[in-house]
Design brief:
This protein is an alpha/beta fold and about 180 residues long. It is about 25% helix and about 35% strand. The protein is built from five helices and nine strands; from the N terminus they run E-H-E-H-E-H-E-H-E-E-E-E-E-H. Strand 1, helix 1 and strand 2 form a beta-alpha-beta unit.
């Protein structure tokens, strides 16, 4: 089962519909977690949402508890939450990308997405990872072609993955393929 933690974002159910194509999916509001279902799940997904990662301390606790035990996937805010839990700084971008299609490229560090390829993706964020960022197991695996901003992370040791963009957006070409690669990893 996939457990989606909804951070009260209008995109959450677009993401849920995409995930339901791969496995039974349960969604609950960030403020109303079902601990038994969370424990039974095989995959935990941190949804998009408003604000910044520091607004969701319970998600940070869930990440720390299940990292390396269950597969964890973060989308947009969820991507930022994973990085924030790994002591990264999340900062404002000069330009806000809401409803913006970007070209992103996979990097050699990617285990899941080889060979390197360019994807068109939908972006809806005003925050980004402040770099440089160092981690022993978390690798930046995709970047925006135009701005070089980090767009994806992989940690194949702890089974943690994330996208800054929305694979569920109509602006993302091959969104189902991108999610499928992570689910099947």
């Amino acid at each position: 089962m996939i457990y989606v933690i909804d951070h009260e974002d209008s995109f959450t159910y677009n993401l849920v519909h995409l995930l339901e194509g791969f496995a039974p999916t349960f969604v609950s509001n960030y403020y109303d977690l079902d601990r038994k279902k969370l424990e039974k799940s095989k995959i935990i997904v941190f949804s998009p949402g408003p604000g910044d990662p520091s607004h969701y301390p319970e998600t940070q606790k869930i990440y720390q508890k299940y990292k390396g035990i269950k597969k964890i996937i973060g989308i947009c805010l969820g991507f930022q939450q994973i990085l924030y839990a790994e002591n990264a700084d999340i900062v404002s971008q000069k330009k806000i990308y809401h409803g913006y299609q970007s070209k992103i490229i996979t990097l050699n560090e990617s285990v899941l997405f080889k060979p390197s390829k360019i994807f068109l993706v939908g972006r809806y964020h005003s925050l980004k990872l402040k770099e440089p960022f160092k981690s022993s197991s978390l690798k930046i695996t995709m970047r925006c072609v135009e701005t070089n901003v980090a767009m994806a992370i992989e940690d194949t040791i702890n089974n943690v993955y994330g996208f800054q963009f929305h694979p569920d957006s109509f602006l993302t070409v091959d969104g189902k393929f991108l999610i499928q690669k992570i689910i099947q990893a």
